[in-house]
Amino acid sequence: MSSPDTEGNAARVHARFWKAVGIPSRGAKLHKTLRDGMPYTVYIKLAAEAGLEQKELARYVIIPPATLQRRAKTRRFKMEEGDRLYRFAEVLKSATDLFEGDKARARQWLLNPVRGLGGRRPVEMIATSAEAEAVLNLIGRLEHGVAV
User: Which intervals hold domain Antitoxin Xre/MbcA/ParS-like toxin-binding (predicted)?
Assistant: First the structure.
């Protein structure tokens, strides 16, 4: 069982991640951000947090180069694009938590084939909510020591 201090630290780490990438972590502010369009700065911060080239992140969240150039000018992503960025952030956060804050190990896990995902790479499973949910479910099982 976790102590109140451990829970408080986990909450601070959780809030720190979302603040670092510029996304509200939950609730009405998150919903409004997704509906109004994710700011372009989130994309830049998210790529940096993941240790990825910006073009790599765009590929994983299915944003073509021409679209990315347009979003750089408008400074905002459309709702569907922002939703994929949010899903990527959720998966990145969960993978980082799985590896106890070790970003390099989390990144390595995300970029390599995983047996529990049928040999697919987790980063390839961000485009749809069902696939992202499968990655998050696997991470949950791994955190709880469930064999996969």
Answer: 94-145
What are the residue ranges spanned by the domains of the chain?
4-143
The residues pairing with 39 across neighbouring beta strands, listed in sequence order, are 76
Integer-rounded Cα Rg, in Å, for the chain is 15
Tokens, residue 135? 């990655």
Contacts of 67 (CB under 8 A, 6+ apart): 81
Do residues 24 and 18 make contact, with C-beta atoms less than 8 angstroms apart?
yes
What are 99-138's pLDDT values in tens digits?
A: 999 999 999 999 999 999 999 999 999 989 999 999 999 9
Task: Read off the pLDDT of residues 19-36 as tens digits, 9 standing for 90 and up.
Answer: 999 999 889 999 999 999
